[in-house]
Amino acid sequence: MQPVVSVRGVTKVFEEGTQQVPVLHGIDMDVYPGEFVLMMGPSGSGKTTLLSIMGCILRATSGSIRIAGTEVSKLTEKDLPAMRLQNIGFIFQGFNLFPTLTVGENVELSLDLKGVRGSAAKTEAKRLLAQVEMEHKYDSFPADLSGGQKQRVAVARALAGSPGLILADEPTAALDSHSGRNVMTILSTLAHEHGRAVVVVTHDHRVLEFADRIVHMEDGRIVPDDSKQEKQDSKVLWMPLIAGPQPSVGDVLSQGYSL
Ligand SMILES: Nc1ncnc2c1ncn2[C@@H]1O[C@H](COP(=O)(O)OP(=O)(O)OP(=O)(O)O)[C@@H](O)[C@H]1O
């Protein structure tokens, strides 16, 4: 199977006046259709920079990025917006909805950018909003929605045009625990039931369980992932709290728990 996004030897150096600031040091990463990947790591480790490069918002200094088989580094500036529109949906921490447009119009605007207009756009916007259980808010304005509802609209908008790659930067940071889980459930469904490749940058340890894979970054490099162990450890920690007879070691291992 071909990855939706394939990153090889990617570096990024920012220029700050006469200073050169190296931020990414040779990143290799593939994300496949149907995969839900969390990108974690300390502040300043380069997560947003890498996400922006995968999303064709920023150019890498060197290395290769292929999206749906096309080498992005060889595209001209003029070709990048079309690459983004056809292949990538973005979700941001601050929702980025237009406050003067209704929920329906926010989604229709994204569809318009992808060439879907008029009654077809209205029908499709309703379908996308139904996917996140927000069709009943079609005529509402963003100011009348809760944070979780706004983020669900942002997810619907990111789905306009059926992009194969969904990128989200801290999508649960502004949400309470319940709304955050709701949004993560929607994003994991998009990966697991609709075959999208979903990459989420997060500091939110409440959402670890949703990940198929955790990419851990430190100082501009991908480092071995000990969060998987963290996930396993959290299962072991709550196991003795389960009422009833204790399971055998075989039962425990067959359920994927570590000892
Ligand atoms: N445009 C820029 N010019 C110069 N340096 C930058 C620029 N953008 C980011 N950086 C630097 O690159 C490093 C990585 O930033 P980045 O935002 O990718 O990290 P992050 O892991 O996403 O952090 P956080 O979790 O705080 O969002 C930081 O040291 C940041 O200051």
UniProtKB/TrEMBL annotation:
It comes from the Bacteria. Pfam families: ABC_tran. Coiled coil: none annotated. One of its GO terms (molecular function) is ATP hydrolysis activity. InterPro entries: AAA+_ATPase, ABC_transporter-like_ATP-bd, ABC_transporter-like_CS, ABC_transpr_LolD-like, MacB-like_ATP-bd, P-loop_NTPase. One of its GO terms (cellular component) is plasma membrane. Keywords: ATP-binding, Nucleotide-binding, Transport. Residues 5-244 form the ABC transporter domain. Belongs to the ABC transporter superfamily. Macrolide exporter (TC 3.A.1.122) family. This is ABC transporter, ATPase subunit. The lineage of its organism: Bacteria, Pseudomonadati, Acidobacteriota, Terriglobia, Terriglobales.
